[in-house]
Design a protein that fits this description.
- The chain is α+β, with helices and mostly antiparallel strands and about 170 residues long.
- The protein has eight helices and eight strands; from the N terminus they run H-E-E-E-E-E-E-H-E-E-H-H-H-H-H-H.
- A hairpin with a 2-residue loop joins strand 4 and strand 5.
- The termini are far apart.
Length: about 170
């Protein structure tokens, strides 16, 4: 079977309703997802509340990395912010696809890119103030601003909704 045929065979279309959980904290993440259209929020519970860690939008891969790759319980949750359509790949089917050299090459390239971007993001984001973080999201990830609730964006940049409203007013 050709690589393209195998990818078509093993990636499955799934739909999630707004508010539906894709991965739940404490459960093993059994799939990796590619968002065709929609938005998915990654968050964890800290001090009795939810802290948004990232919001994924169209054409991005999503999974709880350590949970999926090591098949251990996730320390984070993923939830659809709106109706979301994804292509999913199960852990066992990923193992099969990794036997295809072209898929393996693609997979390694994607992982390298993802790890590089996440490393850069954490370095840059940590040094910014709240307004700089908002402007960074607005410039680099406008879909997050367009598709997310204010409370999730505020949580992502580490401020209250009121502070975020003031930041937005100052920019406009």
């Amino acid at each position: 079977m050709e690589t393209e045929d195998a990818v078509k065979k093993y990636f499955v279309i799934e739909k999630f309703k707004k508010g539906e959980f894709i991965v739940e904290e404490g459960k093993i993440c059994r799939k990796i997802y590619f968002i065709k259209v929609g938005a998915i929020r990654r968050f964890c519970r800290e001090d009795g509340g939810e802290v948004t860690k990232w919001i994924y939008t169209d054409n991005q891969f999503v999974t709880s990395l350590s949970s999926f790759f090591e098949q251990k319980p996730s320390f984070e949750s993923f939830q659809a912010c709106e109706e979301t359509i994804v292509y999913s790949l199960s852990y066992s089917d990923e193992i099969i696809l990794l036997e295809y050299p072209l898929f393996l090459k693609f997979h390694i390239k994607q992982l390298r890119l993802y790890l590089s971007k996440i490393n850069e993001f954490h370095h840059v984001f940590r040094q910014m103030n709240a307004q700089e973080k908002y402007l960074y999201l607005l410039e680099s990830f406008p879909q997050i601003i367009l598709k997310s609730k204010m409370k999730y964006i505020a949580s992502l940049i580490g401020v209250s909704q009121e502070t975020l409203s003031r930041i937005r007013a100052a920019i406009n």
